[in-house]
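Project outcomes to date are best conveyed with an example. Our students and postdoctoral researchers have been running inverse folding experiments weekly, and each run begins with a structure described purely in C-alpha cells. The record below, which covers 230 residues, was selected by the lab manager from last quarter's runs and is presented without edits.
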C-alpha cells in the first residue's frame, strides 16, 4: 500500500513552512496597513454579511453544497453562516443545514473524482504536488484517516484523492462525516460567537477547536506510524 505523502523530504517541509509563514506575514501586513489607513474592517465584514443575508438561505446553502468541490474555501462558509442565519433560524438548525450541505459536497466530490472527471483530476492532483494514493482492502481506512487529518491539504483535494484512490463509498462517507462534522460544528459556533461578541462562547469554541486539533495530531501520528517504510 502506498500512502499519500505531501512532502518527501525535510527540505520540502521547510520550504512549505516558509511559504506559509510568508503568506501569513503578508496577510498580517495587509491588515495592519488597512487599519492604519483608517479602513473599518468590522464594517466591511458587516456589509459582507448583509449581502449574504440578501442572497437568501437557499442560495447560500446551495453554494455551500457545491462550490467547495470546485475549490472554494469551506471556512468562508463556516464562519459566516452563523452570523448570517443563526438569529433567523436558530443555531441548531443552521448547524444541521450546514452539515447537510457539507455531506452533499462530500458525495459530489467523490462521484466526480471516482467516475465523472477521473481522467482530468488525476493529472491535476499530481501537478499540484500531491502523490497519488493507492489502497486495497482494510488499508483504505488508514489512508482516509491520514488524508482527513493531514494539515494543509484543501478539503476538495482530500475528497478527490479519496475518490481517485478507490476508497469504498460507504466507508469514505462514514469516516469523513465523523471527522468533518465535529470540526465544522466548532467553527460554525466560533464564527457566530466572534461576530456577535459572545466572549464565553468564543473561548469555549476555541477550546473545542484546540482539543480537536490535538486529537487529530495524535490520531494522525498513530496511523502515520503504521506506514511501511520504503
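After processing, the design step wrote out the following sequence:
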Amino acid at each position: 500500500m502506498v500512502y499519500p505523502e505531501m512532502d518527501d523530504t525535510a527540505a520540502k517541509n521547510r520550504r512549505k513552512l516558509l511559504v506559509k509563514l510568508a503568506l501569513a506575514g503578508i496577510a498580517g501586513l495587509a491588515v495592519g496597513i488597512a487599519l492604519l489607513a483608517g479602513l473599518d474592517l468590522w464594517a466591511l465584514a458587516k456589509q459582507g454579511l448583509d449581502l449574504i443575508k440578501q442572497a437568501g438561505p437557499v442560495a447560500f446553502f446551495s453554494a455551500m453544497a457545491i462550490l467547495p468541490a470546485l475549490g472554494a474555501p469551506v471556512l468562508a462558509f463556516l464562519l459566516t453562516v452563523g452570523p448570517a442565519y443563526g438569529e433567523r433560524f436558530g443555531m441548531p438548525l443552521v448547524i444541521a443545514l450546514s452539515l447537510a450541505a457539507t455531506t452533499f459536497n462530500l458525495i459530489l466530490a467523490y462521484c466526480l473524482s471516482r467516475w465523472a472527471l477521473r481522467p482530468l483530476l488525476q493529472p491535476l492532483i499530481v501537478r499540484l504536488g500531491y502523490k497519488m494514493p493507492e489502497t486495497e482492502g482494510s488499508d483504505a481506512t488508514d489512508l482516509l484517516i491520514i488524508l482527513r487529518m493531514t494539515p494543509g491539504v484543501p478539503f476538495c483535494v482530500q475528497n478527490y484523492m479519496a475518490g481517485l484512490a478507490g476508497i469504498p463509498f460507504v466507508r469514505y462517507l462514514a469516516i469523513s462525516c465523523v471527522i468533518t462534522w465535529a470540526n465544522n460544528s466548532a467553527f460554525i459556533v466560533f464564527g457566530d460567537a466572534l461576530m456577535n461578541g459572545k466572549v464565553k462562547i468564543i473561548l469555549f469554541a476555541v477550546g473545542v477547536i484546540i482539543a480537536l486539533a490535538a486529537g487529530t495530531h495524535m490520531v494522525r501520528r498513530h496511523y502515520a506510524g503504521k506506514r511501511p517504510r520504503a
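The mean pLDDT is 81. DSSP finds ten helices and no strands in the chain. The training component of this project remains on track.
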